[in-house]
Amino acid sequence: MELLNHLAVGASVALTWNGLFYCFIGVTLGMFVGVLPGVGPLPAIAMLLPVTFYLDPIQAMIMLSGVYYGGQYGGKTASILLNLPGTAPAAVTCLDGYPMAKQGRADIALFVTTISSFVGSLLGIILVGGFAPLLAKFALSFGAAEYFSLVVLALIGASAMGGSSFARSLSMVFFGLLLGIVGEDVTSGRERFTFGIPQIADRLDLVAVAMGLFGVAEVISTARKSRVHAAEGFSYKVRLPSREDMRRTWKPTLRGAGMGAICGILPGAGATMASFLAYAVERWVSKTPEKFGTGMIEGVTAPEAADNAAAQSSFIPTLTLGIPGSAVMAVMLGALMIHGITPTPRLITDNAELFWGLVVSFLLGNAILLVFNIPMIGIWVRLLQIPYTILYPIILAFICIGVYSINSSVFDIYLVLLFGLMGYGMRLLHLPPAPLILGFILSPMLEQNFRRAMLLSRGSFEVFVERPISAAFLAASALIVLAVLAATVRRALRNRKSIRKPVEV
Length: 505
Description:
Elements: H1 2-14, H2 17-35, H3 41-48, H4 57-82, H5 88-102, H6 106-140, H7 144-161, H8 166-180, E1 183-184, E2 191-192, H9 206-224, H10 243-264, H11 270-285, H12 298-313, H13 315-320, H14 327-338, H15 347-350, H16 352-381, H17 388-407, H18 410-428, H19 433-456, H20 463-466, H21 468-500
Antiparallel strand pairs: 1-2
Helix pairs in contact: 1-16, 2-4, 2-16, 3-4, 3-14, 4-5, 4-6, 4-12, 4-14, 4-16, 5-6, 5-11, 5-12, 5-19, 6-10, 6-12, 6-16, 7-8, 7-11, 7-19, 7-21, 8-19, 9-17, 9-18, 9-19, 10-11, 10-12, 11-12, 17-18
């Protein structure tokens, strides 16, 4: 009954004409910004920040948050159709979404991701509305040791999901970790592995690395094959997923939404880790893990559900603890402070209209996105009918514009080209790019929490196994490694027996 009363307070704010207008503007703008490769919701929110000076705080937050989770919806479109991940979580969707598009199933991929995104967002909203105070306390129990162990689990999971070769995936994770430490050391302030290049003193740009490894590498690879169309003979008619598709979708969607909702409340974890973990879990529980990366529908729905659930639940540490879990949440936190609102655990009671108005606007915004996205599937899939000679120069132009717009740096365009060549070389050597991206993203978090944990424990490694949550994460990592090794040994023994088996004449 108390929850219904709170929702009624939120409805009195979100269901006003102003609330509905700014919600519609936010989610619509976010959806279109998310479709543009390399742009994403962060630049859009940053550009809209001065506009919020003239708005009521509630209306400003409704619009900015709509841009954020609207961008999560839109990001899947370029990933599935063109293999262009504008954000790190969208890189996971590329792994199976783009192969589905090449198989002529782009419409089905877009449809199921829209549904799974809505389910993930809905679960995240339920957590925000019903369990925000409790989950905020749970997030406070995570210390440096827990975060370090969680990152280790994510990296091991990424290695397990990276392909048939665990060793190759693990090597890519380590390479990503090395790329992640390029730049200024947070503790000492000294530059590491910059080779005197000032443009990378603040780390390599994530969007430049991701767009190069996935987008430019795909352009080079396809242009080399001299193909004319991305999906020849593709029908303009949008098909609905079959009963078999839906049967294979609902469990991964729920599992991904659950992981995303939990990761979203952990400051620093967020949608990226949630997407990679969701994909790794689906590959782990699948009876045919070797087929992931070839167009498995489970590899599309689980990360998308996790991504959108984390986008919603990430508001919990931001609003209740004042701890932003991502750059987008940091800008949202700044917008709140501009209006004189300091996020604390008492915000839910002291600013009930703001908190519950946001919760209700999340429900409205996701419903609008669901209604908008499904009819537009037919429009998006027509991109696949554009000849490559026209489409790919446009893609490269969007990549350059998107990357340049983030830091206004021409050097970032050079980085895109460099990592594009690297990504193409990795394809030739059958090295998976996804574990590299995850290692690159989580490298600073791994290093900083390891240092902090060692400092607090005075150099004792026992801190990682003395704390129950940290020990559980490390135990799960060890079990994954043992299971992968056991599967490798069984496969080797099976191959050996087949070789020794005499051939009957």
